[in-house]
Amino acid sequence: MFVLRCVKKKLSTPNLKKLCRRNLVNNISSEYVVNSGQSDLIVPNVTLPEFLTQYQNKFENFIAIVLIYRIQISINSFFLFSLRPYYKYNFKHIIFQECAETKKKYTFGQLRDKSTTLGKSLRKRLKLKDGDVVAIILRNIPEFPIINLGIMKANLIVSPVSSAFTSEEISRQIQDSGAKAIITEVVIHPNIRKALRIARRKIPVLVVKTERDQSIPESTINIEEFIDGKVDYPEIILGQPDDVVLMPYSSGTTGLPKGVELTHKNIISSALQTCFCDNDFQKEASGTHQEILPTILPYYHIFGQAIIYGSSLVGGKMIAMRNFSPELFITTLKDNKSTILYIVPPLVLMLTYHEAVKKEYLECVSAILSGGAPFSASDERAFIDKFGNKIHFLQGYGMTESACSASYLYPSIMEKMESYRGSIGRPLPNTLMKVVNPEDPNLTALGPNTIGELLIKGPQVMKSYHNLPEETKNTITENNWLRSGDLGYYNEDGFFFIADRLKELIKVKGNQVAPAELEAVIRSYPGIADAAVIGIPHRTSGEVPRAYVVAGEELNVEKLNEFVNEKVARYKQLKGGIAVVDSIPKNASGKILRKEIKEAYLKEIAK
Questions:
Q1: Residue 607 has pLDDT above 80, yes or no
Q2: What is the pLDDT of residue 543?
Q3: CA angle, 298 as apex, 428 and 569 as ends, to 5°?
Q4: Assigned fold of 506-606
């Protein structure tokens, strides 16, 4: 049967022998649709809270999350901590004055009980109803998973918002999502208050105290009143597995940020796919072992959300860092015997090229999963040269619209696939992927080694975009294929590689930046007639935004830059510069030709 399937797919004899030699199951159909090559997983027909409770019961006495919250930074080393590789040789001068301290922590049993109390309190005291949206605007703090799950247990929808957003960005998400309440921190509240004024909304705001001496702002509610103790309220009847439970925001393939409606089934599928398929790097907690996961990635992001659910399934301990700094990250690795790292490419580069990071700091690490943006094979090999091949270096691929996951490269495969470093692996179980010509109206699947747009199908694919039926129709086909907007290809062994980005999103350290959003901000500045934004290459950030503006002779570029900085999060700032031009190239329908602008820029810097 194996031989017949291979012949049917027109694979050559050398490639057939190569597949057999590596003991890889053939995963390419005769129609050039690629599957995982593994058995499908059974996705239980339950809600996410019901699903997670069984694991919280199993690991109830294990620490689920602990906060790394303070570090003393020496004056003569502070400026040396940069992600820029040309600083790496100065790291031998760094003086660590004090290690990071741990304070607040919760067990899985406490997460279970406190989230239940919160859910009942939200329904009783705020009079929220099934399907209402609650916005979470928090840093990586231990209360995040309690609040996240508590909202879900109240049969409400979580809409996570970046704590780095400006008040204007926050106001847009609050208005679009229709949030009926906000949960934030005391230190973030001034920004929330301003956002509500901009949105002209008056809704309940609950706050978390992250320091003992903090005061609860006027007209807000201390979250402790909703989490601690018992609440006299009937058991809440949860919805159906296909109901929306999480609504992060993504720019999709282009345009402004949109609410991605993810169901209970979407998230459960994604968690199972990444934790319980053919991998050998995550082990369940026991009396002698517990996975230790420093969580640098923000919990509001879909990647951070995935870590929360995934760690629950194996009883892993998350180390929360509410404020990232390279020194805190390095010290955390040094002192906590971390076992698994979920990070983005710029952090991998930092680990690889900075002398402050010693090989022994990662001696307990069994695997590193890099996601959020492609990572080159050469940088991957540089990491292995420094830390050895005992650490499995994995790349994954996914989108917010696929509940984070689509494909994965596993340790057991990597041992046999050295020549495929840089691959994003094979599709996950229950997942199909194909490559198509994006201009083909029939989206016919292409054969191996042909570059085209990646399409994904599986139970993790989102339900829809919030209140945007046309955008949903343009992203999910009639037969449920999700258009990724990324260009890639697969080889004869069914392993995928990212080639380029068809979509116009700019990826800054794994964060999505929509050019249209920045262009709207720039055009609101007095004297700007038109604007275009592209992403340009950057060594440590992957890409950074660069603006082209059409304006009068009186334009002060520095003031424009300050104007933009005040209105957008730091990672969206125009670090690539601002160029004043006579016109913006557009097609006949008025669409900005960003690809042409970027090509012209790359040619210019290549001279």
A1: no
A2: 92
A3: 120
A4: GMP Synthetase; Chain A, domain 3 (3.30.300)
